[in-house]
Amino acid sequence: MTEKLVIIGNGMAPGRMLEHLLEKAPGRYSITIFNAEPRVNYDRIMLSPVLSGEKDYEEIIIHGDGWYIKNGITLYKGHKIVALDRTAKTVTSDHGVVEPYDRLVIATGSVPFIIPVPGNDLPGVLTYRDLDDVQAMLLAAQSRAKAVVIGGGLLGLEAAAGLSERGMDVTVLHVMPTLMERQLDPAAGYLLQRAVEQRGIKVMTKANTKAIVGNGRVEGVKLADGTVVPASLVVMAVGIRPNAVLAKDAGVTVNRGIVVDAGMRTSDPDIFALGECAEVGGQVYGLVAPLYEMARVASSHLAGDQSAAFVHNDTPTKLKVTGIELFSLGDFADGDDRQEIVLRDASAGVYKRLVLKDDRIIGTVLYGETADGAWFNDLKKKQTDISEMRDTLIFGQAYQGGAPLDPMAAVAALPDDAEICGCNGVCKGTITGAITSKGLTSLDDVRAHTKASASCGSCTGLVEQLMSLTLGDNYNPAAVQPMCGCTTLGHDDVRRLIKAKGLKTIPAVMQELEWKTSCGCAKCRPALNYYLVADWPDEYADDYQSRFINERVHANIQKDGTYSVVPRMWGGVTSSKELRAIADVVDRFEIPMVKVTGGQRIDMLGIRKEDLPAVWADLGKAGFVSGHAYAKGLRTVKTCVGSDWCRFGTQDSTGLGIRIEKFMWGSWTPAKVKMAVSGCPRNCAEATCKDVGVICVDSGFEIHFAGAAGLDIKGTEVLGLVKTEDEALEVIVALVQMYREQGRYLERIYKWAKRVGIAEIKRQIMDDAEKRSGYYERFVFSQKFAQVDPWTERASGKDKHEFRPMASVGFAEAAE
Amino acid sequence: MNWIAIGSITDIPQRGARCVATPQGKIAVFRTAEDQVFATEDHCPHKGGPLSQGIVHGAAVTCPLHNWVISLETGKALGADEGAVKTIPVRVEGERLFIALEALASKAA
């Protein structure tokens, strides 16, 4: 009979505990998890990179749905536990699920501290705790308005950096005289403030928030001295407190957090607590390393090993803001029995301070140069007597014992049990051992197998040094990033060799360029297919099996496996006849959602795959062709109404947009291409954040390019001014062809432009008439083969296998 | 085993897949570049993406929704991801393909 284990909360601590438990005692428990958030387990440490745009949510998932299924764990998402009955041994969720337990683990985490001031509940006041908060901040950031972050600690500064990165005007309010005063001494706090201010973030210290003001929503923050700092978004990041309400209501002993013994057991022997809600040895914790230690201890006890005990260890603090190096550890208050060693290098922005007691390190603050953090941590942990090396200690490990100044030597000298990755508690020996025994050669491999550098990433440099120590010449991080694991060549080399060697099929490329796999992977095959389509438009036979599903079935796959269909509406112009045809299709195929897109088109969502050819046949009868809304190719040309209707319009922007779209549709490009034409500088078609945009002016057409309004937000660059529509078209076509020939697959125009240089593109397209007409001619040639409506083809039977099941079986038998 | 005929290997493009509809849901039948044939439930262990719509490479498929790579031989996620899709036995006789639906057979019996 398996015992019933119920877990309340699905954060990183219980997630890690389950990993250990499934390894130590597989099958012992039947496990049920209640998660108040409607999600799987994700890496909360990485919310800051999600906020700043360096990662997206999918990349920070720790356990996907499949993991729970595979391990037979029942996960209730979006269920908050509202009652715990210790007599009946049951928990009850807000959706009414009552679950009995033999053992219960409470991992309810913490709640953000809300400053008790008037206005703290106004719309626009957020905390920084989970993905919902990040998404709300991202939404607010789109307005690029003013934000105030209250709290100059770790979380507050990361939120401020992220919001600033997203284009907001950010002010940090901190109640203490220096930033991060709990982790940094005043000198380092000052350096940090300077670095933060250099990023355009304003910092106000000794700023005591008195009220949040606004009429109906946030308009500003009022300080005790009467100053009002204007803001449309206020993020409170002043601290957290353990979320222990449920345990307290059930009569479990609670102090600051839920009180547990060194085995993570609460006052009720069948109930464990861990994570930020737990208080062990009088301390509550918020950094991941001690939480993971709790997870290890709790899993041992649940698996029947009663000897495991939680031991307090100081955890180094690091700030996850790209470009700011900061490390702090232990106790660095002044005291009569303490001595300190300080190193300052003002011009390099370096500050280091070691606090010593009885010839042993008890505290470390490093700013600007943190490479020796791991070594100092190790000396402190082992309580090493440093009197022998005291004179050179502050210079770091490389200077000890007369060793030459070589960062590699420093890493090499670390003992095997020195901790490299603080987040995941991975030591040097584990990493080098995995590299050797599993033959790992890339950073990604090491992350996958050891978890080192897989959380906050601040130890990545150390891990790379370990790899190069262990692998020697076989590790070359400076080399060109290969296209994928199937080759050592980068995109540019592959493109060059395809042309130089005249390679015209995917197998030929793989053979000649010595691919390491038999038929590539989902990363390289679509890239190669594009390069061959772009380079040999007349000779290459498009390989549909190397295209993503969207380009294979000419519609956009949705999360539920249905598709969405967007017909082309040239320049965003439609008619009653077209709208009627769309309405009829929607009714006939019971299409559940119709939506207007950002590119001035109509999107029909939720179409079953089998219906696609019939939908297209009906749309085709009304004159519609594919809108290529799924393609790495020309998407839309958005227009305003221009001189025909608008009293400000200077040129026929609608007409030009339609002309461009009719000329360029069907072309494949490295990544999607979105365009717009605005009839005057008021720019109603928003042309200045597009891949290519035109602003019509009295004297002609201003051609813009390299804008972005997605993952990144970037205004366009001006390519040049031309006088006529014909010239505008030639310039745009030449520009896109240059991009088609040079872009790396999935690289948008703005990234390509940054790589090759705006000036170089201007020179080739605007100043070199011969080059320009060469590009133009090659594009025109390629269009002869590309401008075929894929919907008409499929409505008349092409690739019909794509849309029909191969067989239907079992239904008759089941009916018997 | 209850072997059920589902068609010919030539119905499936090389490095491609087709679906078979069954009362228990869709089954994806894959054909590799070397003409090996595999079948799995058409449901990625990550977020349920339709594996039949993915790119087939070697004896693996990449899910179209979030790029998990699933081994067609074992059904297990490759690389660092964890999870597995149920594999379905396939028999190839010349060009004809059969799959076994055990649960169905027992229900019918």
Automatic annotation (TrEMBL), chain A:
GO biological process entries: nitrate assimilation
Protein keywords: 2Fe-2S, 4Fe-4S, FAD, Flavoprotein, Heme, Iron, Iron-sulfur, Metal-binding, Nitrate assimilation, Oxidoreductase
One of the record's GO molecular function terms: nitrite reductase activity
Co-factor: note: Binds 1 [4Fe-4S] cluster per subunit.
Coiled coil: none
Keyword RNA-binding: no
Binding-site positions, siroheme: C684
Binding site for [4Fe-4S] cluster: C640, C646, C680, C684
Domain Nitrite/Sulfite reductase ferredoxin-like: 558-621
Alphabetical list of PANTHER family matching this protein: NITRITE REDUCTASE (NADH) LARGE SUBUNIT
Protein name: NAD(P)/FAD-dependent oxidoreductase
Source species of the chain: Allomesorhizobium camelthorni
Lineage per the UniProt record: Bacteria, Pseudomonadati, Pseudomonadota, Alphaproteobacteria, Hyphomicrobiales
UniProtKB/TrEMBL annotation, chain B:
GO MF term (any one): nitrite reductase [NAD(P)H] activity
PROSITE patterns with a match to the protein in the record: RIESKE (PS51296)
BP terms from Gene Ontology: nitrate assimilation
Pfam families listed in its UniProt record: Rieske_2 (PF13806)
Domain Rieske: from-to ranges: 3-99
Keyword presence, RNA-binding: no
Source organism superkingdom: Bacteria
InterPro entries: Rieske-like_NirD, Rieske_2Fe-2S, Rieske_2Fe-2S_sf
Keywords linked to the UniProt accession: 2Fe-2S, Iron, Iron-sulfur, Metal-binding, Nitrate assimilation, Oxidoreductase
Protein name: Nitrite reductase small subunit NirD
Species this chain originates from: Allomesorhizobium camelthorni
